[in-house]
Amino acid sequence: MNIAIAVETDIDETEEVVLAEVAASGPGHRLTVREVIVETEDARSIVFDIPEASTEAFAYRPGQFLTLRVVLPGGSAVARCYSLSSTPGLDAAPKITVKRIAGGAASGWLCESLEAGAQLDVLPPTGIFTVRDTSRDLLLFAGGSGITPVLSILRDALHNGTKRVILAYANRDERSVIFAEELKHLAREFPDRLLTIHLLESVQGLPSATLLAGIARMADLEGSTAFVCGPGPFMDAVERVLREAGMPRDHIVIERFVSLSADPFAAVDVEAVQAAEAAGDAIPLTVELDGEQHELAWPSGVTLLDFLRSKQIEAPFSCREGACSACSCRVLSGSVSMINNQILEKEDLDEGWILGCQSVVNGDEPVSVTYD
Ligand code: FES
């Protein structure tokens, strides 16, 4: 599957969704900021302390992201997603990296005002911008703050794998290169396995198709997976070049960003789920998640995500509105229909992928679903 992931981010903060107070029964965890690190003039990394009770929920894979509830000056709150730049197993605590966006209230506040010791409500890590097949080389394309999840993947691949990695990293100029020192260090430590190519707009102009195609030719496209994260036009250009160069569609993983209109911190309406269950119209449901199998009766009209979370089954999600694919899972048997789907493409649907947050049971055949 090559799902173009879409998560809310600070890329466009012009339309802000004001959140309600965090419900005690909601999915958010209150985390303390351990440290705020100045990365560049307009980028900060935020390291979190994870309380004992939240340790399991905050286990993550390289490339995933956190959703923060940011309370703005004046008291309103917005939800924003930021990728983890830390790498599990290599860093003691999870760390996100935030780039200040012109006019972005949340990223501006996080970069200018957040201090160690502050507390933030945060949703557990999620996202499928992650390496599934470690037997392939990696071809990484990052633009600007798109380096954040890419660095997490890169460090994991170098320290815990054996394959070769090519990183093409586009920036406005030398001063805007986030993690410049870290990348130099990795280049010295893994000279035979890492090739880093810096693309600076101040030197070469915007990356052209010819330049990107030249980088693609350096890789064994059949034997590699490409991960692409950055501004929309950059990702579109890279995807076009890779497809034209013959890279199979399911070898290209793209992190796309959208703004959200729902409140991901809202608690599930358990009473509504119970009312649907009481109506007695339910279909047998088998769910595989995190190596466990759950046998349930899925009432009609209730989304898979809401139903599972009403049973305290921690199915992944972020946006809850069909725009990000963090909740994606695969139907093995039975039939479901989706209320809204802005992200899965025909090939994904043909392979059985669905969005849990948008799927309701369709028909009367038992349904079997896997998240694993
Ligand atoms: Fe974002 Fe379902 S949670 S698409």
Write the layout of secondary structure elements.
Elements: E1 5-7, E2 29-40, E3 43-49, E4 65-71, E5 77-83, E6 95-99, H1 105-112, E7 119-126, E8 137-143, H2 147-160, E9 165-171, H3 180-189, E10 194-200, H4 201-204, H5 209-217, E11 224-229, H6 232-244, E12 252-257, H7 270-278, E13 282-289, E14 292-299, H8 304-310, E15 328-333, E16 336-338, H9 346-350, E17 353-355, E18 359-361, E19 367-370
Parallel strand pairs: 1-12, 8-9, 8-11, 9-10, 11-12, 13-19
Antiparallel strand pairs: 2-3, 2-7, 3-6, 4-5, 4-7, 13-14, 15-17, 15-19, 16-18
Helix pairs in contact: 5-6
The chain binds FE2/S2 (inorganic) cluster.
CATH architecture call of the largest domain:
Beta Barrel
Terminal CA distance reads: 13 Å
Specify the biggest β-sheet.
6 strands, parallel
What is the helix content?
10-25%
CATH class of the largest domain: Mainly Beta
- Ligands: FE2/S2 (inorganic) cluster
- Shape, principal axes of CA atoms: globular
Beta-strand fraction estimate: 25-35%
The CATH superfamily of the largest domain appears as: Translation factors
What is the count of structural domains?
3
Strand order of the largest sheet: 1-12-11-8-9-10
Assign the structural class, choosing from mainly alpha, mainly beta, alpha/beta, alpha+beta, or little secondary structure.
alpha/beta
Q: How many beta-strand segments? A: 19
Order of helices and strands: EEEEEEHEEHEHEHHEHEHEEHEEHEEE
Q: Ranges with pLDDT <50 over ≥5 residues? A: 3-16
- Which whole number gives the mean pLDDT? 90
Query: Helical stretch count?
Result: 9
CATH topology of the largest domain: Elongation Factor Tu (Ef-tu), domain 3
